[in-house]
UniProtKB/TrEMBL annotation:
Reported function: Component of the exocyst complex involved in the docking of exocytic vesicles with fusion sites on the plasma membrane.
Stated family: Belongs to the SEC15 family.
GO biological processes: Golgi to plasma membrane transport; intracellular protein transport; vesicle tethering involved in exocytosis
The Exocyst complex component EXOC6/Sec15 N-terminal domain, residue ranges: 47-218
Listed name of the protein: Exocyst complex component
Pfam families: EXOC6_Sec15_N, Sec15_C
GO cellular component: exocyst; plasma membrane
Keywords assigned: Exocytosis, Transport
Protein source organism: Oreochromis niloticus
Lineage of the species this protein comes from: Eukaryota, Metazoa, Chordata, Craniata, Vertebrata
């Protein structure tokens, strides 16, 4: 209980102490009274003393903490007191001077000086302000002059614009500003004219160097044709893989290129380029900064339309000059190359300008130029290529046109008309080839000896058989030396046919044609070579003067072997074009028919030559048409006929290598011609009289001919087939020599008539000639009975023949 009372007392004393600390001293009387009213005032005093000691300690701590600051403040205060004394002295002195001056005239003077000083200060401030606005004008004008001297016209134009629109209005109305303002239009005109002058220099420079630009672009395509087949052709032309990362600055960023380049050369010098393997890009040669600069300058001047029209007009003029070929362009490939280089260079520049400027030229303008160029190029090629007669030059021209077309196609220009033009030139190329091969074939024909090729070794044999297809198992079994059946003509012609096919194939390369189209083109050209050129040359060989029967025989043998080799030519074409020969609608070679026609012509010429030779022998015939009837001795054949038979025997011995039918036809033709010619001798109107002795001599000659026919000069005739050639003449001579008129007259018209082949007209004509002979021989022997009887008999037979003719031919 006591403890609780002491705690309450302590708490009450604590409350009183807090109240004393927080209450105004005027109000603490009641509080202290309550302490003395209680019994614990001693204890309260102890607490109060403890609280006072506590506060003293805190005050002491606070004083110790701020003592240094207090000392410093006192020190500063002492210094201020000293300065205050000085200020008081100065104010006192100033007051004294003021009092003194106020009493004199100096006050007015001082006030005027002060006013002047204030005016000067104000003027200086105004001048500084004006100079602040004028100095940028002067600095900018100075920069403008430096830019003009350095020919940095586009920045100069921008500076001029800033000077006119910003700086001069702020500077105010000064004479130098007026002079500057007056010079600004002149400077603009100067910049415009200078930029235009640089553009003209650029246009003139690219006109002169367009062939170099085009040559470079075409070299790129030639050295890196794989760029044509990439996923996307470079917008700035075919780029080399090795240099794509280091593309020229003018190509690298299109309109992002800094058009303010300070190089105005137009065409960059690349002659000292040491990299032999590196072909510079087409735009590596050209600095387009004059175009960009002039474009931007005219744009800033508000004359962009004027510039665009001028540029396009000038480039159209240059295009017309570029597209005008030289009159002697067709004479050399270099002329064509220079022509194409200039055109490629022109359009490379236009394509670059198209893709690196915003609207200076547009796609429609470039396409219009290209259409114009394409029509003129095609017309020029048609005209100039028609003068060319050298197939090698035409082939080089074709390759150049392909390179030209591929280059421009890489820049996005349509070139289908050029490839159509190449197909037109292909026809001309074919005609030129035909002319050259015509000369070649004629040389082969003129140099041929028309003799089988002798081979003495296996190597020679294989050499000839490798040149042309030939297989003969029987000939291979024979020992060396031996002879091939054909002459040098066959392997040479076959090799030339293959060379012609290769020449046609060379032209067909790179024309973007399918294998079938190439195959068809080659076959058609080869057919023309066979049916026109070679056929005419073979006709020339057959028809030329002084060609002998041996030569004609060799021509037939040669054409036979060439005919057999035609299917090898078919296979050869199929192998080089990869088109099977049995492809549907594939053109077939006409070689078989060509060589057949030539062989038939040679055969006909053999028949004609043989007959002509026979005629030469027959011209030597000298019959005595008035010869008397021989006595008991045997008559000998005429000398000319013996020589003729000997000639025919030697000739037909050469025919052993000919096809049997040809030899048989030649032999039959010769015998028929002899028979017909002898018949014509009998019936010749100039021979008016024929004696029986002459008929007996002719009968002997015919028997010699029949003996020749019976001996079989050419193998293959069945029985006495060859004798039929002389049957007309034989029956006629038998009728007269045997004087078997009764049989003839009795059996005439019957199929079994012995003299079926004797024409009554022929018999009548011959009897008339015998009647004349008999009449002249019996002028002085008319009184001999036998002669008179024979004369009457002839007259009787003539009368009966005339009746017979009248009966059967009315």
């Amino acid at each position: 209980f006591e403890r609780m009372a002491s705690l309450e007392t302590a708490a009450e004393h604590e409350r009183i102490l807090r109240e004393i600390e927080s209450t105004d001293t005027n109000c603490i009387g009641p509080t202290l009274r309550s302490v003395y009213d209680g019994q614990e005032h001693g204890l309260f005093m102890e607490k109060l003393d403890a609280r006072i000691r506590n506060h003293d300690r805190e005050i002491e701590k606070m004083c110790n903490h701020h003592f240094q600051g207090f000392v410093d403040s006192i020190t500063e205060l002492l210094k201020v007191r000293g300065e205050a004394q000085k200020l008081k002295s100065q104010v006192t002195e100033t007051n004294r001077h003021l009092q003194e001056n106020g009493k004199e005239v100096k006050l007015t003077t001082s006030m005027e000086e002060l006013r002047q000083c204030r005016v000067q200060q104000r003027n200086i401030a105004t001048t500084i302000d004006k100079l602040t606005h004028c100095l940028p004008v002067l600095e900018m004008y100075s920069r403008l002059q430096e830019q003009m001297r350095a020919k940095r016209y586009y920045p100069a134009l921008r500076t001029l614009e800033q000077l006119e629109q910003t700086c001069l209005p702020k500077a105010g109305q000064y004479r130098f500003c007026s002079i500057m303002a007056e010079n600004i239009p002149k400077l603009r005109i100067q910049i415009r004219d200078t930029a235009m002058s640089q553009l003209r220099d650029f246009l003139e420079s690219i006109r002169k160097h367009s062939d170099k630009i085009g040559e470079t672009a075409m070299k790129q395509v030639h050295k890196h044709p794989e760029t044509l087949g990439l996923t996307e052709f470079s917008r700035h032309g075919p780029t080399r893989p090795a240099r794509q990362k280091g593309a020229p600055a003018a190509i690298r960023a299109g309109m992002g290129v800094n058009p303010l380049s300070e190089h105005d050369t137009g065409i960059l010098d690349v002659e000292d380029e040491e990299e032999e393997d590196e072909v510079p890009g087409a735009q590596d040669l050209v600095d387009f900064s004059p175009v960009y600069r002039c474009l931007h300058i005219y744009t800033v001047l508000g004359l962009r339309d004027v510039f665009e029209n001028y540029y396009r007009k000038q480039r159209r003029k240059q295009a017309r000059l570029v597209l005008q070929p030289h009159s002697n362009m067709h004479e050399t490939l270099e002329g064509y190359r220079r022509y194409f280089n200039q055109i490629v260079g022109f359009f490379v520049v236009e394509d670059h300008v198209l893709h690196t400027t915003q609207g200076l030229v547009n796609r429609a303008y470039v396409e219009e130029l290209w259409e114009l160029a394409l029509s003129k190029i095609v017309a020029a090629l048609r005209t100039h290529s028609s003068y060319c007669d050298d197939p090698d030059l035409v082939l080089d021209l074709k390759n150049l046109i392909v390179l030209f077309a591929d280059t421009l196609q890489g820049y996005g220009f349509p070139v289908s008309q050029l490839f159509d033009m190449l197909l037109e030139i292909r026809e001309q190329y074919g005609e030129i080839l035909l002319k050259r091969w015509n000369i070649t074939f004629r040389q082969v024909i003129d140099q041929d000896n028309y003799s089988p090729i002798p081979v003495s070794t296996e190597k020679e044999y294989r050499q000839y058989t490798s040149q042309c297809p030939f297989q003969d198992p029987e000939l291979e079994k024979l020992p060396f030396p031996k002879k091939l059946p054909f002459s040098e003509f066959v392997p040479k012609v076959y090799c030339q046919l293959k060379e012609f096919i290769y020449a046609c194939l060379k032209y067909s390369e790179d024309l973007h044609l399918s294998s079938t189209e190439v195959d068809d083109m080659i076959r058609k050209s080869t057919n023309l070579l066979l049916t026109r050129t070679l056929s005419h040359c073979l006709q020339y060989a057959i028809k030329k003067k002084n060609v002998g029967l041996a030569e004609l025989v060799q021509v037939i043998i040669n054409t036979t072997h060439l005919e057999q080799s035609c299917h090898f030519l078919e296979e050869f074409i199929s192998n080089i074009t990869n088109v099977p020969p049995d492809t549907v609608n594939a053109t077939k070679l006409y070689g078989t028919s060509t060589f057949k026609d030539a062989r038939h012509a040679a055969e006909a010429e053999i028949y004609t030559s043989l007959n002509a030779k026979i005629d030469q022998f027959l011209q030597l015939a000298d019959y005595d048409w008035m010869a008397a009837v021989p006595g008991g001795e045997n008559l000998a054949a005429s000398d000319y006929l013996i020589d003729l038979i000997a000639f025919l025997k030697s000739t037909f011995s050469v025919f052993t290598n000919l096809p049997g039918k040809v030899a048989q036809t030649a032999c039959m033709s010769s015998c028929k011609h002899i028979s017909t010619s002898l018949m014509q001798l009998l019936l010749d109107p100039e021979v008016r009289q024929i004696s029986m002795g002459a008929l007996h001599q002719l009968d002997t000659d015919v028997k010699e001919c029949e003996s020749f026919a019976r001996a079989g000069p050419v193998a293959g005739f069945q029985g006495d087939t060859l004798l039929l050639a002389f049957s007309d003449l034989r029956q006629l001579l038998d009728l007269f020599t045997q004087w078997d008129w009764s049989t003839y007259l009795a059996d005439y018209g019957k199929p079994t008539c012995k003299y079926l082949r004797v024409n009554p007209h022929t018999a009548l004509a011959l009897l008339e000639k015998m009647k004349e002979t008999s009449r002249k021989n019996n002028v002085f022997a008319q009184f001999r009975k036998t002669d008179r009887d024979r004369q009457k008999l002839i007259d009787t037979v003539i009368k009966q023949l005339r009746n017979l003719i009248a009966q059967h031919h009315t």
